[in-house]
UniProtKB/TrEMBL annotation:
Pathway: Amino-acid biosynthesis; L-arginine biosynthesis; L-arginine from L-ornithine and carbamoyl phosphate: step 3/3. The lineage of its organism: Bacteria, Pseudomonadati, Pseudomonadota, Gammaproteobacteria, Chromatiales. InterPro entries: Arg_succ_lyase_C (IPR029419), Argininosuccinate_lyase (IPR009049), Fumarase/histidase_N (IPR024083), Fumarate_lyase_CS (IPR020557), Fumarate_lyase_fam (IPR000362), Fumarate_lyase_N (IPR022761), L-Aspartase-like (IPR008948). CDD domains: Argininosuccinate_lyase (cd01359). This is Argininosuccinate lyase. The keyword NAD does not apply.
Length: 464
């Protein structure tokens, strides 16, 4: 005779001893997969609708199942549903509650499917919706960046390579670089969504089913583009989760790079930007401190999400076809990735709307690093001097500036002319910061009018 808990399990017929209590708790997933309840019910309603359409269920049975599932959903959302560890997962908890509510009709719901294709469908439904939410948060952050870029289209700051002052750029141009990085992230996620939007349901355990099901109809009911072609692949595939995690890792890498710049820029040593007090914290011992905790935490969370990607790849790397219990371990890293990615994007979109710039500090920093040296080289090339010779001339002029503690624009004309007679008094027009940025007046350049044109194109892309 089976123990009461064991007999509650739909698969208990083949077993002669109850599940060990620790094993039961160890193998259960209901503590974390219960968050899939809405998608599990959505998939079950579509499955029951298809079964009735095919004559496998009666219309009365379908109606009882649909009504019962809606009641279960209402109980869960009202916090009145008791989740059971012995019932293992979200699927068996809901099916058991349904059967208790409507009787034998509830036992017919699982006809023509398995938990293998059921969970694969649930996770796809859930992740599809989460991708839509994440894409919306990316767009919200992009809009915040466009507003900031437009406001600071004329603001000069030093552009860096190797974290050394390289050339003057505009702050608006820098924000538009972030915008483009996010645009690629958005495109990657939509591409992932396209591959994800294939329905496993109907693959059953691994080989399909003997019932005359209509998988295309179920797919249409659930908004999938098509049913999965191969039943083995349908139940064992987690490429979509890995691809999403890879896209999330790249996105978090971008946010981490943004964070690094904001942390540097908001430090006393740089002083380029001010973050709103709402997104910073203080020190428990040093009253003067204003710590950029939000960007620091986002930078830290990138490592967490990178780890989830490696974890999922490792999870799948040695699995034979088809479904294996290992795949239960896909959900917690995937759930955590989504939660932290959404949180990071939300806080960034909120924070960037309140960033303010210290124009004078930026301009002064751009003045100090010989950032217009390339402009002087270009000036000499326009005077007929080969670029490599111009490069050497400018290098010598910079060395003089270093010795005298003066920027190129501060060196007298006679000092510059000792390196080349081609230099005349018109050189100072190209050595100014504003002249330098204005000269980069082409598609993709840092000139303020090009920044504004890029913003206009970006807004049109978002509108389209």
């Amino acid at each position: 005779m089976h123990d009461t808990n064991q007999s509650a399990k739909p698969w208990a017929g083949r077993f002669n001893a109850p599940t060990d209590a620790f094993v039961e708790a160890f193998t259960a997933s209901v503590d974390f997969d219960r968050r899939l309840y809405r998608y599990d019910i959505q998939g079950s309603i579509a499955h029951a609708t298809m079964l009735a359409r095919q004559g496998i269920l009666t219309e009365a049975e379908r109606d009882a199942i649909v009504d019962g599932l809606e009641q279960v959903r209402a109980r869960i959302e009202a916090g009145e549903f008791e989740w059971s560890i012995p019932l293992e997962d979200v699927h068996m908890n809901i099916e058991s509650a349904l059967t208790q509510a409507i009787g034998d009709a509830g036992k017919k719901l699982h006809t023509g499917r398995s938990r293998n294709d059921q969970v694969a469908t649930d996770v796809r439904l859930w992740l599809r919706e989460e991708i839509d939410t994440i894409a919306g948060e990316i767009r919200r952050l992009q809009h915040a960046l466009l507003e900031l870029a437009e406001r600071e289209a004329d603001t000069v700051l030093p552009g860096f390579t190797h974290l050394q002052v390289a050339q003057p750029i505009t702050f608006g141009h820098h924000m538009m670089a972030w915008f483009e990085m996010l645009e690629r992230d958005h495109d990657r996620l939509l591409d992932c969504r396209r591959r994800l939007n294939v329905m496993p349901l109907g693959a059953a355990a691994l080989a399909g089913t003997t019932y005359p099901i209509d998988r295309a109809h179920t797919a249409a009911l659930l908004g999938f583009d098509r049913p999965a072609e191969n039943s083995l692949d349908a139940v064992s595939d987690r490429d979509f989760a890995i691809e999403f995690s890879a896209d999330a890792a790249i996105l978090m890498m971008h946010l981490s790079r943004f964070s690094e710049e904001l942390i540097l820029w908001s430090s006393a040593q740089f002083g380029f930007v001010e973050l709103s007090d709402s997104f910073c914290t203080g020190s428990s011992i040093m009253p003067q401190k204003k710590n950029p905790d939000v960007p620091e935490l986002v930078r830290g969370k990138s490592g967490r999400i990178f780890g989830h990607l490696i974890g999922l790849l490792t999870l799948m790397k040695a699995q034979p076809l088809a479904y294996n219990k290992d795949n239960q371990e896909d959900k917690e890293p995937l759930f955590d990735t989504v939660d932290n990615l959404k949180g990071s994007l939300k806080v960034y979109a909120d924070m960037m709307a309140h960033v303010s710039c210290n124009h004078e500090r930026m301009r002064e920093a751009a003045r100090q690093g010989f950032s217009t040296a390339t402009d002087l080289a270009d000036y000499l090339v326009r005077k007929g001097i080969p670029f490599r010779d111009a490069h050497e001339i400018v290098g010598k002029a910079v060395a003089l500036g270093v010795r005298e503690g003066r920027d190129l624009a501060e060196l007298p004309l006679e000092s510059l002319q000792q390196f080349s007679e081609a230099i005349t008094d018109d050189v100072y027009a190209v050595l100014t910061l504003d002249g330098s940025v204005a000269a980069r007046d082409h598609l993709g350049g840092t000139a303020p009018n090009q920044v504004r044109a890029a913003i206009a194109r970006a807004r049109q892309r978002l509108a389209d």
